[in-house]
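Write out this protein's structure.
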Amino acid sequence: AGAAWTAQRSLSWQLEVTTFDDLHVTLPDLWQIDVIEDSPPDVFTQASSVREISTTATIPLLGKAVDDLGLVNIIARATTGQNPENGDEQVEGPGISDATNRTESAEAVLWQTEPATNAIDPSSTGKREQIFSTTWDLREAFQSGEISLAGLAEGQEINVWVEATDTLGQVGRSRPQTLVVRSRQQLLASLGAEQRRLLDQIRDLAELQRKNMQSAMRTSEVAAQSKKADREAVEALFSISQVQSAISRQLSDGSDSLQSNLERIAQLYELNRLTDSQGLLELRQARRVVNELNEVTMPSVLQKAFAAHQEMDRALAQAPQD
C-alpha cells in the first residue's frame, strides 16, 4: 500500500502510459481534485420558550451538530456579564454594579467521541452528525465558580450556547440564548398574569361551546320533528360548523393555541422548579378543561349537528320531486 498523501491545493492530471517500445500514450480521462477550505461545524439548537429564569433553574438543550469531516465533542457553555456575539462590551447605566459586568463561565460536555483509531489520518474519524437532547442545571454549573447563580443580581443576563469541535480543531457555535435572572416572586407574578389571560380565554370558549351545543340540540330536535329541511335549519348547521372550527383552532391548532400555551407555561414552572406553587395546580385544572372541551364536548356537539344533518337528508329524500 502506498503512503498517505495530503493535497494542499486543487490539481488535475492525466495518466500517461509508456510501452517497452518507448511509445507514449496519454489516456483521455482527466482526473481532478478540488481542495476546499474546511469549515467549522454547524450547530443548531431548538428555540426555547425560556427567557427568564429563577436561581434554581434548569434549561433545555435540544439540537444537533454537523461537520463535513467529523466531530470530536459538543459542549454547552454559559457566561454572565457579556454576550459572546458582542465581545467584551460592558453594561453601563444607573444601578449597574461591577458584579453585573463581571464574567463568570460554566460548561458541560454533552457528547464526545472515542479516541481516534486511524493511525494514518486521525482527522478522518468521528461522527459527522450528532443529536443532543438534555437539560442543564445552571445552579450546579455555576456552583464551582466564584459567583454562584444564587448570588446573581436580579436582571442580570446569562448567555448560553452550544459549541462543537471537529477533528481539525475548528469550533462552531450555536446562536446564544440570553436568559434574565428573576426572583421567584417575579417569575410567579409574570406566569400568573399570562395564566389568568389564558384562563379568561378558556372560560369564553367554554361558554361559546355550551351555546353551540344548545344550538345543535335545538336544530337536531326541530329537524327530527318537522321532517323537513328549511333554510333556517341549513343556516343553523352552517353556523354551528363555523363556530366549532373556530373553537378547535383556538384550542389546539398550532403553536399559538391555548393548549400549546398552557404546555409552554407548565414547562416554565417545571424548569424553574416552581412545582409547589398554587399557580401550577390551577394550570393543571385549566389543561383538564381544555382536554374535556377537545375530547368530550366538541365530539358531542358534532354528533348532534351530524344527527340534524341526517334528518334533513332524509327529509330531502322523501320530499316529492317536481
